[in-house]
Amino acid sequence: MMPDTGNAVLQEIPLPGNCQVWMKRDDLIHPLISGNKWRKLSCYLEAAREQGIRHIITAGGPFSNHILATACLCSAAGISCTALIRGRQQPDNHYRLIGARYGLVSVFLNHEQFEQRLEWVNIHHPGKDVMFIDVGGAGDLGVAGCASIWDEFSFVPDALLLATATGTTMQGVLMGRDERKLSTKVIGIPVLMNEPEQRAALEAKGYENWTLETGFERGGFARADESLMRFMGAEIQRTNILFDPVYTGKAWMALHAMLDGHFFNPGTRVVFLHTGGTLGLFSRRYLDFFR
Question: Is the pLDDT of residue 49 over 80?
Fold first, then answer.
């Protein structure tokens, strides 16, 4: 089954305050190739088909939603897939077990090797029928894949808020907004301690009318504290929408705090972009919070 953005409904969510809030349900695009994972991969897949690519190599951490999405997409497209995983080999987790079902081959690289991953690809997989997709789908094609999201809105929101890590999705959202000459303010919630790098990349592109709101990292990337987990548990029950502790849970918590702090003008129409990745919620270290 290929992803379908027609499933990504725009759902109004009642929240306290004097703003209107909708959620762009990109988590519903596909069970495993969801949210910004599909959007970033879509242009890579198109290019792979045009170039006759037979093997895709990508990279990431041992709990990478991007790697799993790439493996699933490659299987559907009849392309073999290898993942370069950062760090020493660890016991199997649910990401790699599911990925293996889709033919994923995992290669573990130490820190030094991972930093030289492109060189590793050139040495071990030379050839014109091989494509390398970097961590999280970063790159021009990943950015371009996120630009079309604006065509799926039934109105032009005053603000769009999303979680951001590498900055690829936010760059694509801004590019698509500017191409369509829209006035929406884009608000990124960094989920790891790299706001300066993200800011520099956005400023270098010359984008305007955006902001990065820090203070919601909850300890850093892939970290979650009890406050975040309790908030997520309550919101999952209230909305029947899954959030993950790495990305969307932090961004959704940030939106609540911003509404409570009157960050937006009264009547502002805010869209929260659910970027998928909810499989992360089912990692043992997070499930233990709910015991």
Answer: yes
Token look-up 């390398």 returns 132
Encode pLDDT of 122-170 as tens digits.
999 998 999 999 999 999 999 999 999 999 999 999 999 999 998 999 9
Distance between alpha carbon 91 and the CA centroid of its chain, in Å? 25
Start-end ranges of CATH 3.40.50.1100 in the chain? 5-32+143-290, 37-137
Residue type, 159: A
CA distance 283 to 281: 6
224 close to 289: Cβ distance less than 8 angstroms: yes
Q: How far apart are CA 125 and CA 131, in angstroms?
A: 9
Question: Does the reported pTM lie above 0.90?
Answer: yes
CATH entry, 5-32+143-290, from 3.30.420.40, 3.40.50.1100, 3.40.80.10, 3.90.1300.10: 3.40.50.1100
